[in-house]
Structure formats: structure tokens, C-alpha cells
Design a protein that fits this description.
The strands form 2 sheets. The protein has a 6-stranded mixed sheet with strand order 2-1-3-10-4-11. The protein has a 5-stranded mixed sheet with strand order 7-6-8-5-9. Helix 1 links the parallel strand 1 and strand 2. It is elongated and about 55 Å long. By secondary structure, it is an alpha/beta fold. It contains 10 helices and 11 strands. About 40% of the residues lie in helices and about 25% in strands.
Length: about 240
């Protein structure tokens, strides 16, 4: 079986999925996955600037935008997962009540520090939470206590919470669950929740498009769907 390296550019929320799924894909196909991760906006920027990849996993909106810009093959898009936002605290710390918008607001105001993604350039969750804080009338209070994650693997909100630099962290559930030193409290209340769909696609720069299509097909199998769910995402 000839081995082909399949280069993947994927949103950070998919990191733990690929870590578990890639060896299984290699066992079945003989092809090795070489994956690089970052916020979807950064993946979009890297593709726009001509970075070569066989598969890209990014938000559905970004994937469609990339088709229009000639960076993704039209007709190659496959919906993979949906990602919701959640709350985490340091491992073993008391878990706040986030069962309603009002209790969530009280928990934020009671915390000495709250970690979120930067509102610009570090992922969609940061921009969404800035709107939530404004809508709840607590933007000024949150600005005084916010600790910002820079996005990507090294800038996860969970790492800030794990280090004890913030009492509460809010980010994509899959990204929170990727950090072993935190406890996942639960998803945001439905009224302020944000669900982001992720789509896999073949970039026009792909040197191994057929191997890329095999990987995308593998991402829709029952095995992959179970892994996706285990990692805090909802299979598409």
C-alpha cells in the first residue's frame, strides 16, 4: 500500500478529533494525515494567501467564501460538525450555575476574572461573547476582568483557566475539552448560544485531491461521527 501524505488545514476545534481519527484513517487507507490548526479566520487567510493543502476544515461561511475567491473546489464541500459554546472552570473548582441567562450573568459578575477569545482575530467565540456581554449590559464590567486567549492551539481559553489566571472560561466546547486541567461545566443557555457549522473542502491548491476526498469521506463514517461527538462537537 503506497503511503500518501494528506495535508490538512483545520479549525482548532477539530484538533482532538484529528488526533484520534488520523491513525485510524492511516490504518484503513495507508495515507498519513499531516494537520495544522488555527482559528477558522486564520485558516481562511492562509488559503487566500496560497498555502497548499489537500483538505481544509473551516466554517461553512468561510468555505463558501473561498469558493467565490477561487481557493476551494466548487462541489467539494461536505458538512462535518457543528460547534457550540460552553463554560469551563479549573479542575476541581466550584461549578457556577449557568442554567439560565440570568444565572450565567450572575456567575460572570461574581467571578474575579473571565477568559474568552479576543473579539477580533482569535476565533468566532470572542466576537460572539463581546455581543453577549453588551446585550447583558455588562460589557464594561467584563472588560475590566477579561483575560483574552489569542486563538489557535497555544491560545486556548482553557489553558488560561488551567493556569488559574481566570475563574471562568468561555469558548467552543471542543476547545475547552481539549485542555485536561479544566472541568467542563456545560453549554451556554440557548438564548445566548452560538452554533458554528464546520465544513470540509478540497482547496484548489491540493496536490493530492483524491486522497483528500478519501479523508473527507472518512470524516462522515460512523466511527468518525462517534469521535466527533466524544470530543464535544455535534456530527453534521
Amino acid at each position: 500500500m503506497t503511503q500518501t501524505d494528506v495535508k490538512v488545514l483545520a479549525t482548532t476545534a477539530m484538533k482532538t478529533v484529528f488526533e484520534e481519527l488520523s491513525p485510524q484513517f492511516q490504518a484503513v487507507t495507508g495515507n498519513r494525515v499531516i494537520a495544522s490548526f488555527g482559528p477558522s479566520v486564520q485558516i481562511e487567510k492562509r488559503l487566500a494567501e496560497g498555502e497548499v493543502a489537500d483538505v481544509a476544515v473551516l466554517t461553512t461561511a468561510a468555505a463558501n467564501d473561498m469558493i467565490g475567491r477561487g481557493k476551494v473546489v466548487a462541489g467539494s464541500l461536505v458538512d462535518i460538525a457543528r460547534s457550540s459554546l460552553g463554560v469551563a472552570v479549573q479542575r476541581g473548582a466550584p461549578r457556577p450555575d449557568i442554567s439560565s441567562v440570568e444565572t450565567f450573568k450572575r456567575a460572570l459578575l461574581a467571578a474575579k476574572s473571565v477568559a474568552v477569545s479576543k473579539p477580533v482575530g482569535a476565533g468566532l467565540s470572542g466576537a460572539h461573547m463581546a455581543k453577549v456581554f453588551a446585550g447583558l449590559g455588562i460589557a464594561e464590567a467584563m472588560a475590566a476582568k477579561a483575560k483574552y486567549g489569542t486563538g489557535g492551539v497555544s491560545g486556548l481559553v482553557g489553558l488560561i483557566v488551567e493556569r488559574g489566571e481566570a475563574e471562568i472560561g468561555v469558548q467552543q466546547i471542543a476547545e475547552l475539552k481539549a485542555v485536561p486541567g479544566v472541568d467542563f461545566v456545560g453549554p451556554l443557555p440557548a438564548a445566548i448560544q452560538s452554533v458554528t457549522p464546520f465544513t470540509a473542502a478540497i482547496p484548489t491548491s491540493a496536490p493530492q485531491p483524491e486522497a483528500g476526498r478519501k479523508l473527507i469521506a472518512f470524516l462522515t463514517t460512523s466511527v468518525a461521527r462517534r469521535i466527533i461527538a466524544d470530543k464535544g462537537l455535534e456530527p453534521a
